[in-house]
Write the structure tokens for this entry.
Amino acid sequence: MSVPGRQAIIDIGSNSIRLVVFGGAVRAPVVLYNEKLMAGLGRGVVASGRLDPGAVKVALAGLARFAKLTGAMELASLDIVATAAVREAANGAEFLDRVRALGLPARLLDGAGEAQAAGYGVIAGMPGADGVVADLGGGSLELVRVEGGEVHESASFPLGAMRVASLRARGTGKLKRAVAEAVRSLPWRGAVAGKPLYLVGGSWRALARLHMHLAQFPLPVIANYSFPAGEVARMRRSLAATGLASLKAVPGLKASRLPQIGDAGALLAELIETLKPDSCVVSAFGLREGLLFGRLDAAERARDPLIEGARFMAAAQQQVPGYSDALCGWLHQLFGDEPRELTRLRNAVCLLRGTGWSSNPEFRALGGEEMALHGNWVGVTAADRATMAMALYVGMGGGGEGPAILGRLAPPDLLGRARAWGLAMRLAQRIAGGAPALLAATQLARDDGALLVTLPPGHAALLDQTLERRAGRLAMALGLSGATVLA
């Protein structure tokens, strides 16, 4: 795990201009500061081919503020990029000169660069992504094929949210023809049929919030939220029948996105008809995170962002140095035959278990659940979060069947496995009290249908009724006949 210091990106887009400062592990960046300015640079470009003077004035005033902020932040790096609106405007070069005069070394991303950054953003947040990325901005739409941790072919089209509104206003069928012509130009379109469509951009996220609301999904975490492609038609019918006041009441749906949500829904419907994906998956990462990912070498890119993020947290809050790693190794004795998808979740909860000491003892189990469900984790689904939450809830002392929400997010067999991880962590705590060397010297195995725990030589005094009881509970959770503790 490497930590580069604070990295900032200023993204000059068609709708908004953002300053985002990142920290944390390089493979699992977290946002330390995020400020948005709604400048609307793209509106003038759609209407006249030039950046509107009023929008430019607003943008430059905000960028002057960003220049002062970033100058005081002692950043490790600062990247300023401009995208479609500035790229396509006749006076875009003049605008960039004025930005640079503020002390901000802005650069222009071409369509290919913007598409690559969006693709890298999706891969950074979902390492196994395999399908097509659709990055919807105010001025352009980038379509990018991703597979095997790499960005492949891409294309950029003048089909941003602002232009979609203009097309639809010109008559029925204009948008359909524009999307069909764009997709027909992609020689790789057949390679992504039946695969996910990864959605990048605020307008897509607004649609996903609506779907989450309609589906009564219990976890309001947008990252990696997915829904069948066929449900977009139902969303559009709901939009048509829903008044503005009702939309404003949808949790997480920002008022600034409401004017464009209908156009975004229409565009998504046409993309689904032409690309024929099986599902839509929302990416919380996009261009900015993709720019960070693009700087990493191959070794850093290959790291698991979930493990890197958990390790970063554990390093700062671990009760005893080395205990979390010892716990990972100890559980591996019993669960080492699990597939990689489960191993990474198990290792993450082992890393996080060591941070529980700082919580109020009466709420420690609930704190573990909360940390897993709502933590800023990268590369996990809702079911993954629920699995981690069950393990931490039980591992930090929670009793009963666990929080009811977990059963709505993950299947019973997965939660049962997570409960076993939690019980194993409880047993480890009783054996070693947080001492890494003592835990590493204790053996854990299945033996002839039973659980066998072997304490280190000379440590018979560790054996008591509580230790035996915890070993028995773990054996029961694993479907074993019983437990034997040898001292």
Q: What stands out?
A: The mean pLDDT is 93. The domain at 112-289 is CATH 3.30.420.150 (Nucleotidyltransferase; domain 5). Residues 412-432 form the longest helix (21 residues).
